[in-house]
Amino acid sequence: MQERMQERMQATCDVVVLLSGSGSNLQALIDASQAGDNPARIRAVISNRADAYGLQRAFDAGIETRTLDHKAFEGREAFDAALIELIDAFEPKLVVLAGFMRILSADFVRHYQGRLLNIHPSLLPKYKGLHTHQRALEAADTEHGCSVHFVTEELDGGPLVVQALIPVELGDSPQSLAQRVHVQEHRIYPMAVRWFAEGRLALGEQGAILDGQLLGASGHLIRN
Q1: Which UniProt keywords apply (predicted)?
Q2: pLDDT in tens, the chain (224 residues)
Q3: Marked catalytic residue, from 111, 120, 133, 220
């Protein structure tokens, strides 16, 4: 049993990251992947925007980059088909969405079923979509946070892997809340990717499975 665990730890897990913006979560993943005992290896970073700063972060880390402009395609399905071809050239075991501002087609999601992760700045299922921090404040929530989940055809609706919860403080603005949530994003996304790379995390028929145990509806909870 110990030998099998060691073999699993030694095997690398190639990862492709998709992004559209600054790539702060990408930087957290890069930093984590440089730990000597982390089996996750970022093979490539792909963006639909040539001016995405995340591409520079990848370049600085010696990671291959690609750009695929969605505006060059007639529709979402055509873009996603080309994106699949581009991703699969790197033969990743895991695809990670890190601020990729595209709604993915059903064909794309099915192609990567069980090996496609996303992070969202709310405690899902609350506040799917945009402006999550403003919506949490308007609802007078006492807690807010972020969620990592497997991607399914339902927008921001896949099985939850891990959530980080923070208290909403008196006087919080959307900006101050976002800053504290970002700190937690940079903590839990590398954690979830590492779990997958180590063979500890998988998508089962009834939800996310960690260390052989079905996670609850909220995933693995971390309170701060």
Answers
A1: Purine biosynthesis, Transferase
A2: 344 444 444 589 999 999 999 999 999 999 999 988 999 999 999 999 999 999 999 999 999 999 999 999 999 999 999 999 999 999 999 999 999 999 999 999 999 999 999 999 999 999 999 999 999 999 999 999 999 999 999 989 999 999 999 999 999 999 999 999 999 999 999 999 999 999 999 999 999 999 999 999 999 999 98
A3: 120
Q: Is 101 annotated as a binding residue?
A: yes
**Do residues 104 and 84 lie in contact, with contact meaning Cβ atoms separated by under 8 Å?**
no
User: Annotated binding residue at 118?
Assistant: yes
Which residue is it, tokens 């995340």? 54
Is 19 known to sit in a ligand binding site?
A: no
Q: Is 25 annotated as ligand-binding?
A: yes
Return the CATH class of domain 1-112. Answer: alpha beta
The alpha carbon torsion through 25, 45, 97, 48 (nearest 10 deg) reads 110
Give the end-to-end CA distance of the chain in Å, rounded to a whole number.
35
What's the burial of 50, exposed, middle or buried (CB within 10 Å: 0-12/13-18/19+)?
A: exposed
Please confirm, yes or no, whether 220 is among the known catalytic residues. no
Q: Is it true that domain 119-223 has CATH number 3.40.50.170?
A: yes
pTM higher than 0.90: yes
* Burial of residue 72 (number of CB atoms within 10 Å: 0-12, 13-18, 19+): exposed
Listed by start position, the domains of the chain span 1-112, 119-223
